[in-house]
Design a protein that fits this description.
The protein has about 260 residues and is of the alpha+beta class. The chain is built from nine helices and ten strands.
Length: about 260
């Protein structure tokens, strides 16, 4: 096997400044938690303005044990913490992205303020501007954002070290267990990662969430808050993928408006 066979290179010649460097910083920051039992993340081998080289992973069929181990490890990654809600990964202070869409990572005083102003409202505005969401639907989501800013959904949990884009495609099951890739890492709320897994589905989801619940010590009724934490990915998709996501976004918001 050659040296290049052992790595996977992602390239993007039109990448905005810092695109791959931000991904590398997020992977390294999340990877720091591995020493304390946190989730495994793909290793960064090299990074530049137009590429990132990662260790090559070999996908395998997920097992129940791997799913349970991921739930436990994810809780430990979150418990590694962050300096503030909205804090960027250590070693990075520039722009941030989810997929190819820009978003900010500015430290905020509360989770609600951060989530409303940096994760939900910007994408709702983009969806509205692009004609993917109508004004009435945007007002429903905006009412929830007002409640978020007011602190109605803040709890006493400290900022968690979250992956930030944890859909099934960013969880690679190998013979050694799950490996996380492509983060939008920041200081946030742990339920955000769980909610995204639930939104788009994942192999062994029930075992993942059960193990996470036990390890993280979630409050009773946490499942009722999952749609709140899904507003961000739904708004992202409404902005980028079109009006088919507008209905689910507004439906999720109505439960909290």
């Amino acid at each position: 096997m050659t040296h290049l066979d052992r790595r996977h290179r992602k390239t993007r010649h039109d990448a905005p400044a810092g695109f791959f460097e931000a991904e590398a910083a997020g992977l390294r920051w999340l990877g720091e938690a591995e020493a304390h039992g946190g989730a495994r993340v793909v290793r960064v081998l090299d990074v530049g303005p137009h590429h990132i080289d990662l260790e090559r992973l070999h996908p395998s069929h997920p097992t129940a044990a791997h799913a349970e181990a991921l739930g436990l490890a994810l809780a430990r990654t979150h418990a590694a913490g962050a300096p503030a809600f909205g804090a960027p990964p250590q070693g990075w202070s520039g722009d941030a992205w989810i997929g190819r869409q820009p978003q900010s990572n500015d430290p905020s005083r509360t989770w609600g303020v951060f989530y409303a102003e940096q994760r939900v409202r910007p994408f709702v505005r983009r969806a509205l501007d692009r004609g993917h969401l109508d004004a009435a639907g945007a007002r429903v989501v905006d009412r929830v954002c007002d409640r978020l800013v007011a602190g109605d959904f803040d709890d006493d949990r400290p900022p968690a070290r979250v992956h930030g884009d944890l859909w099934a495609g960013n969880v690679v099951f190998t013979t050694d267990g799950a490996v996380l890739i492509d983060p939008a890492a920041h200081g946030g709320h742990g339920l955000t990662d769980v909610a995204m897994l639930e939104l788009f589905g994942c192999s062994g989801l029930d075992r993942i969430t059960a193990a996470y619940d036990e390890a993280a010590g979630l409050e009773r009724g946490w499942r009722d808050l999952v749609p709140l934490h899904q507003l961000h990915p739904l708004a992202v998709h409404a902005a980028s993928h079109g009006p088919s996501y507008a209905g689910p976004l507004v439906d999720a918001a109505r439960a909290f408006a």
